[in-house]
Amino acid sequence: MEFVERRSGISLWRQIADQIRIAISNGEFSDTDMLPGELALAKRFEVNRHTVRSAIASLAREGVVRVEQGRGTFIAGHQRLHYPIGRRTRFSAGLAGQTRTLSGSLKESRMETASAQVAQALALDPGAPVVRLVRVSTADDVPLSRAISWFDGTRFPDFAERLAKQRSITAVLKSFGIDDYVRISTRISAHHADPQTLEDLRLSPGAIALRTEAINAEVGGRRVEYSNTYFAADRIELDIDHETPSTGL
Amino acid sequence: MEFVERRSGISLWRQIADQIRIAISNGEFSDTDMLPGELALAKRFEVNRHTVRSAIASLAREGVVRVEQGRGTFIAGHQRLHYPIGRRTRFSAGLAGQTRTLSGSLKESRMETASAQVAQALALDPGAPVVRLVRVSTADDVPLSRAISWFDGTRFPDFAERLAKQRSITAVLKSFGIDDYVRISTRISAHHADPQTLEDLRLSPGAIALRTEAINAEVGGRRVEYSNTYFAADRIELDIDHETPSTGL
DNA sequence: TTAATTTGTCTATTTATCTAGACAACTAGA
DNA sequence: TCTAGTTGTCTAGATAAATAGACAAATTAA
């Protein structure tokens, strides 16, 4: 007997779909790689069989399971990508080897004035000109993240134009004479995805966005980039590198 | 005009409540600290006024807003706690100063045999005895996290009994002669909270759990603790410490 | 006081979700 | 082939969510 809550604003089929998805990721059915029958699930969640069918139909649409008449419902392996975060975090390098294809597309770019938050992160004066970019990354034809980045507009006035040609942030920074940069702070939180993120990442309402708020700086400490990245939480997890403070000893 | 999706398994009032909550945390209404009127919100989301009222009622139950007849709906400040994560992560110390009260309670403890995952994390053989603890932490009378920890059962047979007296993991480890330990890996992911977590953290279905999967070890590298901690995502964010690799230079 | 604007409550109706049951279609094993 | 167990489809009815409109109650400012 599991818990489903009525009148919660989440339909029963959706609560059941969420619980089955979690159970799968916890390896509950890994012995057979099959879900129990619809009648068994209906009994377990104390709902009608049709309600369970709605939940399974939703999981099938997501590609989490595959249903075969007369045989049963099979689990279609569903592994999260691993994204390492540390001082030397680089997007493409971090996911290398985990996907067949990996691409990024620039959705928006504009010059704006720095909000208090952006100004503080980049160590600029509030109202200073900044370049704001929105990029969506896609791995194996599935959107993975939506990133909003800010750069000093005075120092990097044509960042967007260069990015169109260079294809990676690292390469563009190199073209500005910045050979190396490091992550100096990362803040992680989780939210229900906002409408724009839902659309760009092809998620459905209620889906979770894992947000990283990061500051990158040159080795001397001069701020280079401030970014807010929203990952589709069901497609990725973040691995934190705890580097040894004194490597040489 | 904002997006609300029908037939998605999430009721309209809940989608609207989620969007208003996000808008508040983005500072959208920070100029007046008030929500727009019910009619204005109904127009913005293209729904009936009563649907907006349901959404606001839900936010009021959560304590996010406060409604006053004839005056309007006021935003009740709602700040996330900040939990620093680094090599020297300590639960109580990390949240010190951010809350009036902070307590932890042991919900379960038992000896079990190590699963493949636990065995690998603690560098034990699968099937070896391990101590499994479930602890729930509470800050200012609101549950914050649910942590499942595993320790080597051979080395720490009476860990649970000592924890009942000592009150912190660090203190218990000290009683076993371990004066210092460091975080060697942290993996972060976000999920819809499972039913047990919903109950322990007093969340409603659809709520988000921010999960950290962590390994702590002695300075020599010997594994001490493996833990899975589920935080209420709307009450906390995680700050990653990117320590400088060579501090002395 | 008055008017305008706000939230609160009530009734009625429509639409979506969930339940209930029956039976068809398909699969695997006896 | 037969049977038991599975998913697929249909009908009907009950419950919950959303819409629509009217008016009450409280607040604010003119």
TrEMBL record, chains A, B:
Q: Which residues form the signal peptide?
A: none
Q: Name one Pfam family in it.
A: UTRA
**Keywords from the UniProt entry:** DNA-binding, Transcription, Transcription regulation
InterPro entries from the xrefs?
A: Bact_HTH_transcr_reg (IPR050679), Chorismate_lyase_/UTRA_dom_sf (IPR028978), CP_lyase_PhnF (IPR012702), Tscrpt_reg_HTH_GntR (IPR000524), UTRA (IPR011663), WH-like_DNA-bd_sf (IPR036388), WH_DNA-bd_sf (IPR036390)
Which domain of life does this protein belong to? Bacteria
Q: Where is the HTH gntR-type domain?
A: 10-78
Q: Supply the name of the protein.
A: Phosphonate metabolism transcriptional regulator PhnF
What organism does the UniProt record list as the source?
Hoeflea poritis
From the broadest rank down, the organism's phylogenetic lineage runs: Bacteria, Pseudomonadati, Pseudomonadota, Alphaproteobacteria, Hyphomicrobiales
Q: What gene codes for this chain? A: phnF
